[in-house]
Design goal:
Largest sheet: 8 strands, mixed
Oligomer: single chain
Distance between the termini: 62 Å
Amino acid sequence: MTPGEELLFLALGGSGEIGMNVNLYGCRGKWLMADLGLTFADTDYPGVELILPDLEFIEQRMDDLVGIVLTHGHEDHIGALPYLAADLKVPLYATPFTAGLIAGKLEEEGLTGQVQLKVIERGGSIDLAPFRVTYVPLAHSIPEGNGLLIETPFGNVFHTGDWKLDENPVLGQPSSAQTLKAIGDEGVLALVCDSTNTFQDAPSGSESSVHAGLLEQVKKAQGRVLVTTFASNAARLETIGKVAQEAGRKVCVAGRSLDRILKVAKATGYLRDFPETVRFDDAMRLPKHELLIIATGGQGEPRAALGRISGGTHELKLTEGDTVIFSSKQIPGNEIAIGRIMNALSDLGVITVTERQAHVHVSGHPGRPELAEMYRYMRPDILVPVHGEMRHMREQARFGLEQGVKSAIVQRNGDIIRLAPDGPERIGVERTGRLVLDGDVILSADGTTINERRKMAYNGFIAVAVPIGRNGERIGEPVLRPFGVPVEEDRADFLADATDAAARAYEPGKDVEKVREAVRLAVRRCATLWTGKKPVVDVMLVETDR
């Protein structure tokens, strides 16, 4: 697939899912990549925390890739760069704050100098023939959210990235309505648009509106206050810092990602008035009503600061009458983990406040009124929903058509969409997939290693050793070691039965692999009869000198 005299769109991640955003634009033999993000693993990936996009399609066409443009600094848009960007051998383009975050990631992986990172000023443009890309500032829940105006010989694309409309942002200055309308006046072939909050009837709300709600909750708190929020939301950090000062409280920060965001934000001209922070030991010596803690872990991450504080394993402590404010929204899928943290806090006698009890959070993604406004600004010929599960994207396509957009196409990862000429049209499907970062190794998400681990996690594992002599005769009883097989108090009886099954299944003189397979099946059948499970069984034929 080499793009000809046409403009193509291909998502390798982020369509049909929230996270792991990777989008490609193809034109006149070249490809442009917008974002390279990751997502976080769930229980389907035992032992794995990070999931990366499979870039096989573009890796086979690296000579045709002109660059990677990054919209903003969230993990689902830049998180895969340290693991995959070096192999692509093209420059990265980002505005200063995002570039600062990327530089830190590259340094941690020992890639400084190996990946070319070019800093583009907000509102700046770059020529990556046949594309010209202009960064268009948009509000979001992180500094320097950007849309991308991608000009091509076949029409202009406005790629929103993550965005919202906010006339009173706490940090930065997004594009005005006049600027966005001017882009529409020049003609927009396709609007490639965030679908996250398509079902939300109300606007997302201004970041500045959170100040009053947080201040009210902090002022009425009697003991220590801990506020947990997304570390990347530097505007929220600015608000929390001001609230602490207005409430007469010192600030203590707990969490590596918070430290990193504060460092990059200050280095790029943000959070200059953020109050000086106190160390953990000094914080615990302060009168309780004089301390405000900002901590990571609001999504229930057990190893994050709030998880360890709630479990009593952190230097910072909370006790009866203290308050924890969740200045964030529950990400779907994290409800159980967040509930565990809240229950642990409740056991300590801590009061918890969420966005359901008070106005302490606003979303960084557009609700329906904001989507409708963007359609009016851009007046696109084509709407391409991205950044959402299938239900979100299909709903945005319906909503866009209701609002007067001429056409909409719902695509999924791997669909090759011709936007022009004569688009939109699905003209092919390419293989996409997932990779996992397992320790320090990148593997296929559905490869042998992860599939074996899933089977062991769900069904258990039995190791079988059969001692054999030089002539292949069995010279002793098989030895079995079950792991995670639900036999409990019947373990001895089960082992006796399974050992007998292994011994009877062993027939010398046959092909070694056939003998091993016969023993494996016999032990697994025995385990299934005892437990109803089908554990992974590994058989070793141990040859001795006898």
